[in-house]
Design goal:
Layout: E1 3-12, E2 15-25, E3 30-34, H1 41-49, E4 61-64, E5 67-68, E6 79-83, H2 94-103, H3 113-126, H4 142-155, E7 160-164, H5 172-189, E8 192-197, H6 200-206, E9 209-214, E10 217-222, H7 224-229, H8 234-239, E11 244-251, E12 254-256, E13 268-273, E14 278-281, E15 290-298, E16 304-310, E17 315-320, H9 322-327, E18 335-340, E19 344-347, E20 350-352, E21 356-357
Parallel strand pairs: 3-8, 3-9, 6-7, 7-8, 12-21
Antiparallel strand pairs: 1-2, 1-4, 4-5, 9-10, 11-12, 11-13, 13-19, 14-18, 15-16, 15-18, 16-17, 19-20
Adenosine-5'-diphosphate binds at residues 12, 17, 35, 37-43.
Length: 358
């Protein structure tokens, strides 16, 4: 089922939580809605589900496979939900939790006892909890409870699966495990899924496409690779990982980052470069290079983290592979040059394609 949203706004009193959002969720894809807290992710999900109505607007559309669903209530939209806080029934066993959605169906649509049992066991095998069918939620770990919540959402055979920060309350290790597991599950089931998260690593790892949201608007839509390597705005670049920011200005068609940060000038420019896209040289060979002094070196970890300070007292973070670092280790107080391998320059909010000096 594809979902097409056009010109959807949602206000709470005078506050606009969603501002003319248009986005398509293609059939069978897993799309991540990524953005900071308060950017409107949950609101968008609730509008898709029908738990919330959009602001009246003649141009507003919410289409499921091309059909307007404005007058289709939640129960008829065939959506499955998983929320952050395991909304499992505490007094029901795992089996009964998963069976719930089937037992409450109208008599004419309700499967027989036998069919329900078969389907629940099949789902519990799918989420690898078949041996725990008779346990109560309190007898499960957090990760297991979220897998039960997912089995329960799948029991009604939804056309669309909506996941709102489903792993948000779990610790980092379990989260990482579950996101891989969810991706594998999606590869088998191919249900159109929308996955809300504020964790960029989670979005980049799990999704076919990432929708980056900011203040009720969409900043960029793209594959994980595109939003990470070709961010459409400074916001996206900043949100998707560690980044060094240098302030400068555009002068005579050149983005200049050699001046002090606050001396005004024409258009304001920013140069953003990720720590792993900087390298350190003793002598730069005609490439853009920034003189800096090594401040601190951290070698305990998968990469070597070097903090440097430039002549404007700006901290510059560089991540080097151990292999590169070991060829020519640097130490605190040494004077070196920092050379970017890849940069993104923005003039105002938009990418700048011209030349620059640092
Ligand atoms: P996110 O899920 O990205 O954290 P939400 O969609 O939950 O963001 O909320 C977006 C904004 O809308 C927030 O500023 C939030 O306070 C506001 N908001 C959401 N729901 C309501 C509501 N029922 N009443 C008033 N304000 C709300
Ligand atoms: Mg939310």
């Amino acid at each position: 089922m594809s979902i097409e949203i056009t010109n959807v706004s949602k206000s709470f009193g005078a506050f606009r939580a969603l501002d003319h959002v248009s986005i398509t969720f293609p059939d069978g894809e897993l799309t991540a809605l990524l953005g900071p807290s308060g950017s409107g992710k949950t609101t968008l999900l609730r509008l898709v589900a029908g738990l919330e109505a959009p602001d009246p607007d003649p141009g507003c559309r919410i289409l499921f496979d091309g059909q307007e669903v404005a007058n289709t209530p939640v129960g008829r939209r065939q959506v499955g939900f998983v929320f952050q806080h395991y909304a499992l029934f505490r007094h029901l066993t795992v089996f009964e939790n998963v069976a719930f959605g089937l037992r409450v169906k109208k008599r004419a649509e309700r499967p027989s006892r036998h069919e329900i049992a078969d389907r629940v066991h099949e789902l519990l095998r799918l989420v690898q909890l078949d041996t725990m069918a008779q346990r109560l939620p309190s007898q499960l770990s957090g990760g297991q409870r979220q897998r039960v919540a997912l089995a329960r959402a799948l029991a009604i055979q939804p056309q669309v699966l909506l996941l709102d920060e489903p792993f948000g309350a779990l610790d980092a290790k379990v989260r990482a495990e579950l996101r891989r597991w969810l991706r594998d599950l999606h590869n088998r089931l191919h249900i159109t899924s929308i996955f809300v998260t504020h964790d960029q690593e989670e979005a980049l790892e799990v999704a076919d496409r990432v929708v980056v949201m900011n203040q009720g608007r969409i900043e960029q839509v793209g594959t994980p690779d595109t939003v990470f390597h070709r961010p459409a705005s400074e916001f996206v670049m900043q949100f998707l990982g560690d980044v060094n920011v240098f302030h400068g200005r555009i002068e005579a068609g050149l983005a200049n980052f050699t001046a002090t940060p606050d001396n005004g000038g024409e258009t304001e420019a920013r140069l953003l470069v990720r720590p792993h896209e900087l390298t350190i040289r003793r002598n730069p060979a005609g490439e853009p290079a920034l003189a800096a002094k090594v401040h601190r070196v951290l070698t305990a970890g998968p990469v070597v983290k070097v903090d440097l300070i430039d002549r404007f007292q700006r901290i510059v973070q560089v991540h080097l592979s151990h292999e590169v670092y070991d060829q020519d280790p640097v130490a605190p107080a040494e004077n070196v040059f920092v050379v970017p391998r890849q940069t993104q320059v923005y003039a105002g909010k938009d990418p700048w394609e011209g030349n620059f000096v640092i």
